[in-house]
């Protein structure tokens, strides 16, 4: 299980990217939709690439879910960059479905990693936060993405904190077997 410990920094980068994005969203709530699209696209791409890289580095147990999460993130980033004039409601649905799919993938990966690491709940918490965020966006689509900047920022910060906590836990993972 040394491969999990060797990729701790990827989780750390994902967490730091989420926190930076969250603070930028909170600091500039009047941000234009085009800049918000660029922030989301960049975050989607960074998160997707690192999830994909993690998927290729991990064992078979969590590989498929991390790869799926990475592919979805990369595709969401490409769509956001390709059509920067996208309406706020269309972006809201892209963000909502990305959050739900990647959140479910992280919950499943966390459950599957229960046999390999302690405190896998940090990955599960990040996934649950992602699903809740996506569902909230679907419940209130009429408000538009711009009016949800505070929710987006808060989610990104909380998600980033859970990813960093997981990264630090995984970094300290040893290859000694767990005692039941």
TrEMBL record:
The keyword DNA-binding does not apply. It comes from the Bacteria. Keywords: Membrane, Transmembrane, Transmembrane helix. The chain crosses the membrane at residues 7-27, 33-53, 65-83, 89-109, 121-142, 148-168. One of its GO terms (cellular component) is plasma membrane. It holds the Pfam family DUF308. This is HdeD family acid-resistance protein. The keyword Transmembrane helix applies.
């Amino acid at each position: 299980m040394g491969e999990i410990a060797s990729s701790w920094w990827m989780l750390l980068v994902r967490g730091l990217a989420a926190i930076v994005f969250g603070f930028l969203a909170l600091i500039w709530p009047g941000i234009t939709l085009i800049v918000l699209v660029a922030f989301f696209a960049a975050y989607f791409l960074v998160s997707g690439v690192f999830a994909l890289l993690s998927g290729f580095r991990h064992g078979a147990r969590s590989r498929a879910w991390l790869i799926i999460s990475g592919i979805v993130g990369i595709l969401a980033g490409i769509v956001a960059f390709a059509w920067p004039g996208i309406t706020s409601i269309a972006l809201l649905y892209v963000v909502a479905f990305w959050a739900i799919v990647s959140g479910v993938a992280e919950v499943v990966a966390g459950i599957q990693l229960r046999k390999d690491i302690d405190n896998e709940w940090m990955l599960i918490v990040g996934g649950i936060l992602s699903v809740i965020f996506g569902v909230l966006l679907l419940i209130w689509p009429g408000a538009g993405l711009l009016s949800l900047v505070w929710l987006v920022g808060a989610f990104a910060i909380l998600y980033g904190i859970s990813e960093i906590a997981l990264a630090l836990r995984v970094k300290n993972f040893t290859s000694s077997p767990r005692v039941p």
